[in-house]
Amino acid sequence: MDFETAKVALEKYIFGTPSVGREKFVYFFGGEPFLNFSLIKEIVNYIQKRKKDYSFEIRLVICSNFTLISKKTLDWILKNNIFLSISIGGIESVHNQHRIFKEKTTKNAFEITTNNIKNLQNLGYKREQIGVGLVIRNKNISDFFYYFKFIVEQIELNHINIEFIIEKEAWRQQDFIIFKKEYKFILKYLLNSIKTGNFIFLNNLNWTIIEKLNKNLGKFSSPVSYLTEIHPSGDVLFSGFFTHLSDEQRKNVIIENIKTGNNFKNFENIGNKKFIDEYFSDMQKLKDFNSGEFYPFLKSYISNFDDKIAEFILEKSKKYLNFKKYIDTIFHIYF
Asked: Which of 145, 126, 142, 124 has its CA nearest to residue 134?
């Protein structure tokens, strides 16, 4: 991406739209954002100057494998109050299989990443400012819960987002069955963390809880506020899961292109519930490039579980202090 594309996107989607809470979020993802650190710094400087004219805060989040980090970079992260989402593929041996350096080297990617996390923590970085993107492939799905516990107990981080990787080998029905079992273990583990007060946060569950809270308050949670993605091409869409679709299929999920000015979905109606319902209805009809139905998979295997657990947590929060604290913490994270 170039700076001008980023600038247009910020003016339209951050500074040009009303705030639904006290904060707006700007995520940097790739690829590896720190490969273009100079552009990241230029964009952050622009945001820091522009946000002085607005009452809402802007939370800056960089999604990274956290290997290209120097002492200068750590200092910059601290100075600019950057939040991090660090991708980890499981235990050391599994993580290193998919983190290969360009040059032949004995470097250990897992060791570099975890050491950089420790260095950041030693500099006073708060635990809640570091999230983990737990990378899941169908090849390692049977160890999903083990990896989850490893991140919480060994790396000592408690904000986790599940990141699915779709490779050439399509997910099979047996993979879905294993995932279902592993995800149930994770949710039980999470519920126990609430009871003990050692909270663990799962990003997709957080949003389900937020949506239910807003619904109870008579509010509509538009994904414009948290799912809008701007691609280097200028394409604007609501989900990165469709990056690999054919050009013909992509037309169904692109809202507009901020470089060309092509408006595919009528930007003025984006915050409207009818528009959102139609948009996601279109997405459910699409096939993944593996010829599998990946979006319906997410909806049936994650959303259904999250929906039930969110209802359970909200109900318990009416009677039990720890559950109420958990809900309050989630609400504070996003609003």
From this structure: 145
Q: According to DSSP H, which parts of the chain are helical?
A: 3-13, 37-50, 71-79, 92-97, 109-122, 144-150, 173-196, 203-216, 247-250, 273-284, 294-298, 304-316, 321-334
Nearest to 133 by CA among 66, 231, 43, 223: 66
Mean pLDDT per segment of 10 residues, for the chain of length 335 residues?
A: 93 80 83 93 96 88 92 93 90 78 76 91 87 85 91 92 73 83 94 96 90 70 64 78 58 78 60 59 51 49 81 95 95 72
Fold of 3-217+294-334: TIM Barrel (3.20.20)
Predicted confidence at residue 5, as pLDDT, reads 94
CA distances, 76 to each of 65, 150, 223, 266 (Å): 17, 29, 30, 39
Tokens of 50: 């522009």
Three-state SS at 261: coil
Structural contact between residues 241 and 289, judged by C-beta atoms closer than 8 angstroms: no
Tokens of 196: 């003990």
Model pLDDT, residue 249: 63
Tokens representing 75?
A: 């200092």
Q: Which pLDDT score, from 0 to 100, does residue 176 have?
A: 82
Helix 3-13 and helix 37-50: axis angle, to 10°? 30
141 Cβ neighbours under 8 A, 6+ residues apart = 175, 178, 179, 182
Strands 229-230 and 159-164: unpaired
State the DSSP H helix or E strand holding residue 256, giving kind and residue range, or none if neither: strand 254-257
Q: What are the domain boundaries of the chain?
A: 3-217+294-334, 223-284
Token pair listed for 159? 């904000």
- What pLDDT was estimated at residue 293? 47
Cα distances (Å, whole numbers) of residue 70 to 9, 45, 61, 308:
29, 20, 18, 43
